Amino acid sequence: MSQNLRSEMVTFSVANTFEPGRAFVAYPAGEGPHPGVLVLHEILGLNDDMERVARRFASEGYVAMAPDFFGPGLQIGCIIKALKTLNKGEGEAFVRLSSAQDWLIDQEEVDAERIGTVGFCMGGGFALLHAAREEVHVVANYYGDVPKKADKLEGIPACFGGFGAKDKLFGPKAKVLKSHLDELEVANEIVTYNDAGHSYMSNVEGVLARIGAKGPMRVGYDPTSAEDSWTRMLAFFDEHLTGKLIVLDESIDLTTRKTPAEPAPSETDGQSRTTDTPTA
Q1: How many CB atoms lie under 10 A from the CB of residue 262?
Q2: Residue 158 lies in a domain
Q3: What whole-number distance in Å separates Cα of residue 88 and Cα of residue 125?
C-alpha cells in the first residue's frame, strides 16, 4: 500500500440537531478530484479492520469515508438502536449517513458525480437503502440484510453483492437481492462464494469472531474469496463510475472452486472472458 496515502479522523455536522458525527477518512495519492466512497461498518463498529478497508479503497484511488454509527467503544444500546432504525428504514442513522455524504462530496478532492457506497453485515443493509434514496452512483452490499419487497429499493443504482454460501442466515438473501434488482431492471453482479461464510471480507479476531465461527453464520475471514471479491467489486465500481469495462480473468470460478469448461474455439481465444453482469 502506498506510503503517500494519508488518513484522519474527522467530525461532521449532522442535520436535525443530532450530535456531530465522526468518521475515518483515507485519501489517495495524487491530485483529484477522485471518486468517493462511503464505507459502512459491520455490527462490530468502526474498528481497525474497517479502517483497513477504507485504506484499501484509498490505495485504489478513492477518497474513502467510514462514518461511525456507534461512537467510541462497542455500545450495545447503540447497536440495538441502529438495528431498529434499519428495520424501520428511517431514523437517526440514515440522517447521519446523508450528512456524512454531504461532507464527503463537499471536499475539493472528491468528484461529486462519482460516489459509491459499500456496506458490510449491518452496514450492507444500510448501504442498499441509502443508495436508493441519495445521489449514489454505485453500491455494494456484503452479506447484509435485504428488504422483503423490491419496491423498497426503487431508485437504487448499479449494485454489487457478495455473500457466503456457508452463512445460513444471510447467504440466502443473495437470491432475494438478485430477484429484486432484476425486477427493477438494475444492473447487478451478485456473487456467492461456496467456501465462505459471513464476514468473509473482514479480518477480525477475538471472542465474538470465534463464537461466530461456530454458529449458523460461520463467521470468518476467507482471504481467497475476499481477494476475488475485491477484484470483482472494484471492476464493477470502475465500470459504473467511469464507464471503463475491466476485463477479468475468469479461468477459475471461485464461486464453485472448479475450472469452467473449455469454450468453443473463436477469434477471441487466448483472451480473458468478460461478462456484463457475472453472477452466481
Answers
A1: 7
A2: yes
A3: 12
